[in-house]
Amino acid sequence: MPSAISVVTLLTDFGERDYFVASMKGVILNINSQARIVDLSHAVTPHSIEEAAFLLQSCYHYFPDGTVHVIVVDPGVGSSRRPLLVSTSRFFFVAPDNGVLTPIFDNELSVEVRQIENRQFRLDSEGATFDGRDLFAPAAAWLTRGQVPGTYGRLVRDYHRLSLPKPEVHEGVLKGRVAYIDHFGNVITDITASDLNTLQEVTKYAEISIEIGGMTVRGLKRHYGQGAKDSPAALLNSNGHVEIFLQEDRADRLLQVKVGDPVVIRPV
Amino acid sequence: MPSAISVVTLLTDFGERDYFVASMKGVILNINSQARIVDLSHAVTPHSIEEAAFLLQSCYHYFPDGTVHVIVVDPGVGSSRRPLLVSTSRFFFVAPDNGVLTPIFDNELSVEVRQIENRQFRLDSEGATFDGRDLFAPAAAWLTRGQVPGTYGRLVRDYHRLSLPKPEVHEGVLKGRVAYIDHFGNVITDITASDLNTLQEVTKYAEISIEIGGMTVRGLKRHYGQGAKDSPAALLNSNGHVEIFLQEDRADRLLQVKVGDPVVIRPV
Amino acid sequence: MPSAISVVTLLTDFGERDYFVASMKGVILNINSQARIVDLSHAVTPHSIEEAAFLLQSCYHYFPDGTVHVIVVDPGVGSSRRPLLVSTSRFFFVAPDNGVLTPIFDNELSVEVRQIENRQFRLDSEGATFDGRDLFAPAAAWLTRGQVPGTYGRLVRDYHRLSLPKPEVHEGVLKGRVAYIDHFGNVITDITASDLNTLQEVTKYAEISIEIGGMTVRGLKRHYGQGAKDSPAALLNSNGHVEIFLQEDRADRLLQVKVGDPVVIRPV
Asked: Are residues C138 and C23 in the same domain?
């Protein structure tokens, strides 16, 4: 087994206080003590599939080829929702079929989606409430030991996707929304550099105005140091999204916005 | 040294902000740079030995054979309380003698308990306030390098146990208490499936009523999706405990309960 | 490559909820899948260079020889502030040139400071807002693969230092300040055992009085168990600093102090 395929990332809404994450790690190491487990995040808002999808999209591609990404934000655990194994050219994804893998289905050129059916990859346990430990963790660990996806279960074509609104241009105005608010209070929109390029009139980023939370921001800065402490500024962030910020302070508090709120960009 | 014995877990009340956990990890890696360190939890309520014992019990057995579990919830650090090394058929435990290992003493068929006396396993340092770094971390790291328990110190027979009340049946009624409230607000009781089986009249789990926080819950669901958003439901959770939940919401807030509050189960 | 040099620690103000830390870990593992990544802390108060410097100082030296310490508390990201690679006899440090490495410059006998200029150690990416992922992480990962500091860039002599006040004795009185408040509410001062020794009159630690937050504490205890639950006590903590504590409670709340507040020690 090449060492490159022994990285396993965990993305959950379990928090870091309880025994949930540790149980999953124990199960993985019990199957492959050489696995390198990385916490992607465990602070997803409980049951927020959209937030987990956003976080996954923002960093999964930085990991080495062969990484197994495990996502357990799973309000339907124990019901008939299917557990999925998705293979792409570089990665594996193990997650419930609830739309959390939408960015992978959208971004990756080729995906193979299977239902995890083989009981070999499931722990015997009493309850039906912790598939993170009893199903997703062992399924991922066996992948790092070289199990091939074909042994997990049948191909699935009707997997679930989130139907998130996408930014769109209407009468020369680009409309999007707040996608995420980060630890620093920066307000990340769903509008990307390529969305900006669809505003035909704009040739330079200085020539746009951004309306958000009742305020208007002119142009894009290159880095946070060019902002101000008391009025919001914007830039294209490290993932190519339009982001509104205050210099060393929380823009979300000044703007009083939350995820889903509208953002409008016009040429000026 | 077999790779299987190089996993070390850390369970503390240190939080993740300060330099305490990192210091322990540095000490361990300085002794064995091949050790695989897993955070069990660092968010134990400060000084809560009972909470640490509950978390330990909930997941220690999922780890591979040879894992060294280090527990540092240690209000008596620097006093005459003894540091212990406990060996079972599968695991090692390194912890202060304050009762935090009670679930191990209760669950494991065979335990060997030693006092850590050998000064070889202690760092020289100025203060007497951080045995996590200066004693428990090096003691654990040397185990992963093959040191045998006999070299640590003398056998101990009068080690400390917590005297927690256990669920009991009185006049056909099962009385227990709230053992833990998790990240989702689920209320985990100390009542297990085997406790339920002592209620002779009950043949099916549908035929019980659970009184908690002034409310009554009828029967047990199989998974969270079968609950409701505004009235509490119960199930046997993934560790075999009776747990009260709301579908995608916090049951602890609705019930207004805390750890230690009474739970009563009756046949109906 | 010796295994001893593959430990990488991360100290940031990124929090653990977002994709920032995971992105850095992905980048590091993509360059060296054998790297052992340790979270020093990600809960530094946003933009607090002083707090990061305090945390770094408190634990960097416990790690094995060859460890690469990466510090990303970087309010000036994207501006002209320089990225640094600092080599000492035992460690490497990768950080922005904003003073966060002051304790290393102060404590280490020999430091070699270089500007990271070589574009080979930088990811191509769209924005200029995430050098943690695009520059510091790859620069650190290549060190673990044996890249030598000389290939990173030119030597720097005018690197930035914080100008923190140091404890000083004036007319027989030692004046310092609150340096940090930990997870338990313990109040850690910047006054060390060697500072105490400059108070010539003091021969035993019992013979001092400590004024802080309008209260006076007499003498030093040896461990927390010797304190009281309702009046503050002091000790020399595990890093050799004078620390004010309450037994199993938060001294910071009783004293109503914050970082920077004055502490005065007198012989009695």
From this structure: yes
